[in-house]
What does this fold into?
Amino acid sequence: MSNTPQSSASNFIRSIIEVDIASGKHANIITRFPPEPNGYLHIGHAKSICLNFGLAQDYQGRCNLRFDDTNPEKESQEYARSIQDDVHWLGFQWDGEVRWASDYFEQLYRFAIELIEKGLAYVDDLTPEQMREYRGTLTQAGKSSPSRELSVIENLDLFARMRAGEFADGSRVLRAKIDMASSNMNLRDPVIYRIRRAHHIRTGDAWCIYPMYDYTHCISDALEGITHSLCTLEFEDHRPLYDWVLDNLSIDCHPRQYEFSRLELHYTITSKRKLLQLVNDKHVSGWDDPRMPTVSGMRRRGYTPDSIREFAKRIGVSKSNNTVDVGVLEGCVREDLEMKAPRVMAVVNPLKVVVTNFIEGQTVSRMASYHPQHPEFGERLVPLGKEIWIEADDFSENPPVGWQRLAIGGEVRLRYSYVLRCDYVVKDALGKVVELRCSIDQDTLGKNPIGRKVKGVIHWLAIEHALPAEIRLYDRLFTVPEPDVDKDVDFCTYLNQQSLQVVDGWVEAAVSEAAPETHYQFERIGYFCTDRYEHQPGKKIILNRTVALKDSWAKE
RNA sequence: UGGGGAGUCGCCAAGUGGUAAGGCAACGGGUUUUGAUCCCGUCAUCCGUAGGUUCGAUCCCUACCUCCUCAGCCA
It folds into this structure.
């Protein structure tokens, strides 16, 4: 009997867990999601969140949220808050309270003393430059620092004085004494504590020494009883150090670290440093700009938690480098919104049409369903009028072969209304089409015309009843698939100047009172979402385009 | 030219000594008052390359090739 839920694909981590459960090594698994609060979460983190929390759910285990807050200079409460919000929004709940690596500072300190007492750590006063020199290179062994031979007594004293603030920032470090000749650079006596007088978001000014990631992470995992510590591939080389620390300390728990490949997406970047640069340099409005690959940006854009979780499921987990096309992500939202978003009509690029034979009080309006497959979504009246807006793109003076939209002398179905014929085109002095004079076939409401077939259907809005709306159309943020592949070229040079287009469009009155973050499908156009922050129900309608509808005509 | 990883369809990704899952995309057809959705069908004689072991290898062995990664007092 397998523990694998049918909904989740097999992957190497699940295989390991299943073996561990089957062998009795673990009765319950405990995972953790360990972000550093130094930026907002992005789609790559979402993959990790879905993995860690998903595993815990599927195997009846637990998953902790633990902040790796060991570098006070870059961390903030704002980031920590946003991260918690994002995890919740994605649909996950961590086990118990939020954990902080800083909660373990005292224990970490005592373990460091244990290491010193065992002769496995020493205080060094080499400058950063010297340390780099002493470290050697990939092909040459490093050499020992003079401090490597300090006695336990001396090290104990020095380390205590480091904590007491007797030394200047950066003047001394505590190093693990492992092997300066190791072919693994991480084992060449890595620094495990440095002196930094920085205000910490949790511990304030209580400490002037801070533990390094490699030293902190494994111990934090062990203290929390983590069974499977999952991280990305670049930490593979750190695993021997992870194990070394735990093997040499009196901790009876030794979590196992497993690495999986990080997610790469075409036309976007997933580097917190670079995302921060986009924010700082004002290339975007903030971390939650709808063009950002951040969780909060995608949320604002209109992505749903379900769609992101589905995405994580589709891309899978492995150890091979992979680059996923954004089309996969888009496919996930379309699929989710297809069944969840009510349909409504909107005109993004309006062209005025005068229905010449519209007869007030006689020409009828129909009710329209909010969802073709879900009558429970309800319906509303879509009023027709003498003057209507249609999409400028739905009319062509010189229609190409296969054109199913409006053309001079041609007919088209007005969605939920009559069949419309274009009789006359009004142009301005420059020859630009500014208005269409059309007539409807009075006998086509709710039924097809007799003797001829009208294939095309277009959306429209009665001018009298349409509501003005600010519509934000987003395109990819970068013009090339891999903006940051070339180290010599600033990725900002590949910014897509047309990534945001704000247009004044029109929407059905039904949208008027929509709350922020309401999803809609604008028929024939795409999925849109009322802006989380700026949309004001009943006052200012602001919609963000989440993703366009698939368009097999546009491809031709 | 040190260490650690990875190479299976356009993109992800299972799999395993017994003759290549699935998803996305793509393509063909059907339904449709969204050129959407939905439905049906097609889509790797082949698993980086070359040898070897075997009745039989993508899975085992050998060599090679390619890509990623490591020299922060970042995580």
